[in-house]
Amino acid sequence: MAGDDPKEILFLCALQNAVKHGGVPQAGAVIGMVMGAHPELRSRAKDVAALAKEAIADVAALSPEDRITTLQSRAPEMFAALSEKHEHKKVLPDLEQAGSGVAMRFAPNPSGPLHIGHARAAVLNDAYVKQYGGRYILRIEDTDPKRVDPEAYAMVVEDLKWLGLGITETVTQSDRLSLYYDLCRQLIERGGAYVCTCDNEHFKELKQKKTACPCRDQPVEKNLMMWTKMLDHGYHEGEVSVRIKTDLANPDPAMRDFPAFRILDAPPHPRVKAHVYPLMNFSVVADDHLLGVTHVIRGKDHIANTRRQKYIYDHMGWQVPVYRHYGRMGIEGVVLSTSQMRAGINDGTYTGWDDIRLGTMRALARRGISPDAVRNAMLAIGIGDTDISFSWDNLYAENRKIVDPVANRYFFVPDPVEITIGGAQKHTAHAMLHPSDAARGTRTLEFDGTVLIPISEISPAVTMIRLKDLFNVTITWDHETPSFTYAGESLADARAAKARIIQWLPVQQATPCTVLTPEGEMTGACEPAVKNELKKVVQFERVGFVKIDSATPDGIRAYFTHK
Ligand code: GLU
User: Fold this and answer.
1) Residue 86 pLDDT
2) Architecture of the domain made up of 510-562
């Protein structure tokens, strides 16, 4: 039990939290837990806050493995409590009117591959379709030729396949232009839209003053004639647009008679020959209606669009889908802007769309993040409307749950230094491929007197180390020069001496290896058998999980996944 020393209570709480969620907890979460369980500390809020900071720093200094062993030894009951509580699975809130099944859609623009920002809409809509049963439409929204990358059509489909979504049908909006043209004609006939030839600036001024432009009151016949002229190439870009009649008194100027169609002379569309294009609000409504979409889950950044779109539903007399808008999600630490990514790829800053510094699905895949981890992280975030910042630590914690049981363990020695150990016999070490799955067998490391270890492990303060799965080594220092001597195999001796248990490699078995991290490269050597793990995630003991990217006679390259 934690006893009643506040310092110990806070440390154990922070530790339990870190083991449970992966990553280091926020001070607020730890303080909240402690105050809840120990009301006697509430009068000492200031001390508790200071101690919480220290406790979190102490926990942060431990490796994820050490966190588990420390919690197991210092508070076994707190460790046990973690597995007793059933896996906390966030269930998404019910959707109204979903009882008889749903039709939902994921509607990306093909401007680049999908990134982590897209994953939320993609996964949440998918989860609801799976929950209620129904159709899941992939709708490629490519009616703005300025924002189309011809290669993105295939990339989006591949990325969704990787994510494992249950798409039941796919439509591409550029195939559907004639449907939108027909609906526009109907909308004009119903008096819900007009063809406007006002100069943009002039229209804006009138709109600010809540004043109708002269085109608004044209008779339907004139609008229809002008619409036909638009389709027949009778106008040029910028001369004309179709506007939806809304409420000029609407307090939000952005709602007032927004545009629904425009003419674009250039650039040409990569898939179709076209001149008149619907704007997003029109094509989205047309398709949500035509495809029978029942529920739309999208970000709060679309709230204004939802309001605009309702005017079109009203004019047409169509049933409005059920909308849910989730909060904004800030994502730090990676580049997400498609134009920035493309520019970086073109100028050689990034190696491609899967460069590990980018936030694309393909970059995550390359680094060894499993699609299920992305899915679980998004489900945990859910559809709440509060703005949040995306937690990479949570994604990594989800991924760790998936890769930890499957990843084989190997030694990788970063920045290696060669040491010769006196007094030691030749020795064969058998290290487990997985610590909790003996059936997988062992790796064999032949000790022959000289080994590589990470240079960072040796400093004059260190007098004993244990080479993992081999034996203990004492270090004696003659001024700056260390010498290394065999010191027996007892694990208890190593523990008593607080010796670090470190990874090592026989010189003759060391295979050159580079681990690429978003921050830079770690160079060193690893076990030769790592080359058999191509495209798999393994754990380099004490370093972290990595995905083996390539193995050539020059060596192995791996991408760092996470600790
Ligand atoms: N294609 C648009 C987007 O990705 C529309 C999505 C929507 O209507 O939900 O932002």
Assistant:
1) 47
2) Beta Barrel (2.40)
> 541 is written with which tokens?
């003991």
Q: 395 CA distance to ligand 1 centroid (A)?
A: 24
Query: Residue 259 and residue 247: Cα distance in Å, rounded?
Result: 14
Output phi, psi for 60, to 5 deg.
-60, -30
**Radius of gyration (Cα) for the chain, nearest Å?**
31
- The answer, yes or no, to whether any atom of ligand 1 lies below 6 A from the CB of 240, is no
Look up residue 368 and give its amino acid: G
Does ligand 1 come within 6 angstroms of the Cβ of 288?
Answer: no
- Asked if 263 and 229 touch (Cβ cutoff 8 Å), the reply is no
pLDDT in tens, 152-179: 999 999 999 999 999 999 999 999 999 9
Q: What's the CATH code, domain 177-283? A: 3.90.800.10
Report the distance separating Cα 16 and Cα 25, nearest Å: 9
CA of 107 to the centre of ligand 1 (A): 5
Task: Return the pLDDT at 267.
Answer: 97
Q: What is the pLDDT of residues 439-478, one digit of tens each?
A: 999 999 999 999 999 999 999 999 999 999 999 999 999 9
How many other C-beta atoms are found inside a 10 Å radius of the C-beta of residue 91? 9
The answer to whether 277 touches 242, Cβ cutoff 8 Å, is: no
Residue whose CB lies within 8 A of the most ligand 1 atoms, among 109, 115, 160, 296, for a mutation test: 109
**Two tokens, residue 313:** 């539903």
Which token pair is 222?
């004139």
- What's 217-279 look like in SS3? HCCHHHHHHHHHHHHCCCCCCCCCEEEECCCCCCCCHHHCCCEEEEECCCCCCCCCCCCEEEC
Place of tokens 């950044």: 301
Q: What residue ranges of the chain are covered by domains with CATH 2.40.240.100?
A: 510-562
The CATH code belonging to domain 409-507 is 2.40.240.10
State the Cα–Cα distance between residues 453 and 507, nearest whole angstrom: 10
What is the CB-side half-sphere exposure of residue 122 using CA atoms within 13 A?
29
Residues shown for the chain: 563
Q: Which segments of the chain belong to CATH 3.90.800.10?
A: 177-283
**Residue 298 Cα to ligand 1 middle (Å):** 7
If we measure between CA atoms, which residue out of 294, 5, 273, 241 comes closest to residue 145? 273
Q: How many other CB atoms are found less than 10 A from the CB of residue 529?
A: 15
Whose alpha carbon is nearest atom 10 of ligand 1?
108
